[in-house]
Design brief:
By secondary structure, chain A is mainly alpha-helical. Chain A contains twelve helices and two strands; from the N terminus they run H-H-H-H-H-H-H-H-E-E-H-H-H-H. Classes of the chains: A mainly alpha, B alpha/beta.
Chain lengths: 286, 414
């Protein structure tokens, strides 16, 4: 080692080191870049990020609630029965999932000139792509809470801490996935196409448009119940937990929390592992 | 820590970097799965067995032809590429100027890009805020800093990129061919800034094709060819070796030496006995100030030639550019006669001629001199010594100047 690292002395020192270690300044700047540049030179600008979920909820409500007559569960204990709210509390986190992964996948390949010219920790690229989307989700969720309070008389504000915890865990989970797909996409551009194909069925295999109890419990595939297989999808736990907190106004069950925490830890750890392994030759392959 | 290694800022030990040349890259997962691990590629060592040490406070040049591995070396040093063999050790905060404004986003304003680029280069927001005015001032973009950079001219773009990079205050700065930025005034300021960094004791590693600049800026220089180290040492010496190395007409045995006049090549049987630069006081020298007086003194054996000769001189820049040629015409005949002994019996008659240049009209840099002896009709070459003398033209005066020749003018207000 050329020089021994400085021993942190004051809390300020330690904070500075932590900030440096987590690349906070770089993350903030790259996230702001994503957000600022996203709607530059578009007439409607930020309206687009509101329009997107709005259109989705109208179309999905029409198709699934009106045409296909899917009944939302009755909120227990909230007593709420509204397909739009039922849908939105899971749809918004799902759209965060989709857009984060889509944008993160290309985050390294799209920044090729940067990667080959400047050294900086590469993990900040997919991470900031996810963070930019996460800030959008925060705004969307806040708007949603106000809207359902005003329109439906449904007050979920007391559950904000629970929702924020769920969102924070989902953020980490998504970062883990983003690290994997972004690094893999440098070596195989198939990943971005594969993701486009995989995300649509993934949505239909997650209880967003319909309640979980519509998945049959009594039928089996290779001796395993449909419902059990179905729940191997970690997004099921998040969807259910979001719906518990915001629609039912109920604390998600311990099993849900356990599944969520395990999924988060595993995916984040594997994500960093994979990224570390693929990082060294990125500048050559990008 | 050992005291001997404490003044080493950058050290390379047995460094090797290989690339895979795939003529038919498997860009798809399917192709790779089908081909298994039998993916065909050719390995190509861009760098091999490279060991170097750069001391703290040194300005170090890296020269070499295209594809010699110079830029790969900088990228390995910068951490962008990982070496396949050997190690690199960098002591101190490192910043690399490989491409200016590489992190700029066209849709963002100059101001936003300064913060973004600074963060990518390792600045904290606090550090940038403190230097922001300096950065913008240096780039001369005060009026345009809140414009999106897509509206910038390419000059404004690189000026801002340079300005951010140069204000990082690195302990070790890597520079790749980026000094030719902006107009002359800005280039001058860049060079001043480098001189300032140098004076502050920072370590600078420069990769360039501009041998004059390397010779002028760098204390030591390494010459890399096909990924291996050809020579390392004082800049003028290495640049000389490089210039000869790339000129196939020059015998390989001749290695020009910037510190002494190179006479090793002259054999006792040659007509030309010595070639030297002489300052106005009559002392031999190897460094001439641009625009200063100098004489080229050629001593040759007139008797052995067996006939009157014409002396021809050729002046070349170290990169091979032909600067000037002059021949003495009939003048040297007179010189020879006047020196002749009355009895004319001598078998050897040494003649010394000076070509006096009152104000050497070339830009600072490394130059080479070729000498040839012809018959008086200039039809036959009696003897030719290409690139026999290497010398340095040092900068003089304060006016920034550039190009091939030094005009030697003065500014006068009217």
């Amino acid at each position: 080692m050329p020089a021994s690292p400085r021993v942190p002395r004051t809390p300020r020192d330690m904070l500075d080191r932590l900030v440096g270690r987590l690349q906070i300044d770089l993350l903030v700047n790259l996230t702001l870049r994503d957000l600022r540049s996203k709607y530059k030179r578009s007439a409607l600008g930020w309206t687009w990020s509101v329009l997107n979920p709005l259109v989705a909820v109208v179309v999905y409500s029409a198709v699934f609630s009106v045409f296909l007559r899917i009944q939302p569960t009755t909120g227990d204990p909230s007593g709420l029965r509204s397909y739009a709210v039922f849908l939105l509390v899971t749809l918004l986190p799902w759209q965060f999932h989709v857009t984060s992964l889509t944008e993160a996948t290309r985050s390294i390949t799209a920044n090729g000139p940067l990667i080959t010219k400047i050294w900086f920790p590469r993990w900040v690229l997919p991470t900031s792509a996810v963070l930019a989307r996460f800030l959008t989700l925060l705004v969307e969720m806040a708007v949603l809470l106000v809207l359902i309070a005003v329109l439906e008389g449904h007050f979920a504000f007391a559950w904000i801490p629970v929702v924020l915890t769920l969102m924070a865990l989902q953020l980490l989970f998504t970062v883990g996935l983003a690290l994997m797909v972004s690094a893999a996409n440098v070596y195989f551009r198939d990943v971005q196409h594969f993701l486009g194909v995989a995300l649509a069925p993934w949505m239909f295999l997650t209880p967003i448009l319909y309640p979980l109890n519509m998945v049959p419990e009594d039928r089996e595939f290779l001796g395993i119940g449909y419902r059990t297989l179905y729940q191997l999808n970690p997004m099921v736990s998040w969807a259910k937990a979001y719906r518990n907190a915001l629609y039912d106004l109920r604390f998600p069950s311990a099993e849900r929390w356990l599944a969520i925490v395990i999924a988060t830890v595993v995916v984040l750890a594997v994500g960093f592992r994979v990224f570390r392994g693929l990082e060294p030759r990125m500048a050559e392959e990008v | 820590m050992a005291s001997s290694s404490s003044d080493v800022a950058v050290s390379l030990d047995g460094l090797g970097k290989k690339f895979r040349l795939t003529h038919d890259r498997n860009w798809t997962l399917k192709a790779t799965m089908l081909a298994g691990h039998r993916t065909r590629y050719e390995e190509f060592w861009a760098l091999r067995d490279l060991s170097l040490e750069v001391e703290h406070g040194q300005t170090f040049g890296i020269i070499g032809g295209n594809g010699s591995g110079k830029s790969t070396l900088l990228k390995v040093l910068a951490g962008i590429l990982r070496p396949d063999e050997g190690t690199t050790t960098v002591d101190g905060r490192l910043s690399a100027l490989l491409e200016l404004g590489a992190g700029f986003h066209p849709e963002l304003t100059g101001r936003e890009n300064v913060y973004l680029n600074g963060a990518i280069l390792g600045f904290t927001a606090r550090e940038i805020r403190r230097r922001f005015d300096d950065i913008v001032g240096f780039a001369e973009l005060d009026r345009f800093i809140d414009e999106p950079v897509r509206n910038y001219s390419s000059g404004m773009y690189v000026r801002l990129g340079f300005s951010v990079a140069i204000h990082v205050e690195p302990e070790v700065l890597l520079v790749d061919e980026v000094l030719a930025v902006g107009d002359l005034t800005f280039q001058k300021r860049c060079l001043d800034r480098f001189a300032q960094l140098k004076a502050e004791g920072r370590t600078i590693i420069v990769v360039s094709h501009d041998l004059d600049m390397v010779g002028w800026l760098c204390d030591r220089t390494a010459w890399i060819q096909q990924g291996t180290l050809q020579a390392v040492g004082p800049s003028s010496k290495v640049i000389g070796q490089f210039a000869i190395g790339i000129d196939p007409t020059t015998p390989a045995a001749h290695t020009g030496d910037g510190e002494r006049p190179a006479f090793e090549r002259l054999s006792p049987n040659d007509l030309v006995k010595s070639v030297a630069l002489v300052d106005p006081n009559g002392h031999p020298t190897n460094v001439v100030g641009s625009g200063r007086q100098v004489s080229i003194r050629v001593r040759y054996d007139n008797q052995a030639a067996g006939e009157p000769v014409t002396v021809a001189l050729g002046l070349y820049r170290a990169d091979g550019t032909h600067v000037a040629s002059i021949n003495s015409g009939a003048t040297t005949r007179g010189v020879a006669r006047s020196n002749q002994e009355p009895d004319g019996e001598a078998t050897s008659e040494l003649v010394e001629v000076d070509y006096v240049v009152p104000a050497l009209p070339v830009q600072p840099g490394i130059y080479e001199l070729s000498v040839a002896l012809h018959d008086t009709s200039m039809r036959r070459v009696l003897e030719r010594h290409t690139h026999i003398l290497r010398f340095e033209v040092s900068p003089t005066g304060i006016d920034p100047q550039n190009g091939l020749v030094a005009l030697g003018g003065t500014w006068e207000a009217r």
